[in-house]
Please model this.
Amino acid sequence: MKKTIPQDAADFIVAYLFANEGEDRPELVGKSIYDFSPAFVAGVESFCSGFREFCEWRGVEIPHTERSLGGNVYFSLSGHGVGFWDDSETAHLQPELVEYSGNKYRFESMEICENEAGELDLGYIPSKIESYREKQFTVAPWSSAFLPKI
Model:
């Protein structure tokens, strides 16, 4: 039985795999969203759902488009040249995402590798992975993202 992965997290991971698998990353070829660790998926879901909550709190509409929120979150913060900003329906979300994230290239250098259990996760030494995962996917509530828009 395959595990259930929330849509935003699944779309984020699909975008990551699309952008990174190939000759330079043979360890990702043939991998799917189901090959990622539950902790990694939870981190991605927390980041994406937090962005949805942030937009709701700020009164910013997230339009229903054919392009996924999770995929756009990854592409918009990874420097791949596409994302919310390249579609007139979602361009208004780009500055909101950057403010929420605190770093417009937050996922640019995100490295994934197999962990000791054979699951894909952030590529850090096992004793440090939880703190790095938290740093990668947590937005500090004291950041400018949670101050009222002026």
The first helix runs from residue 7 to 20. The helical segments are 7-20, 38-58, 69-76, 93-101, 129-137.
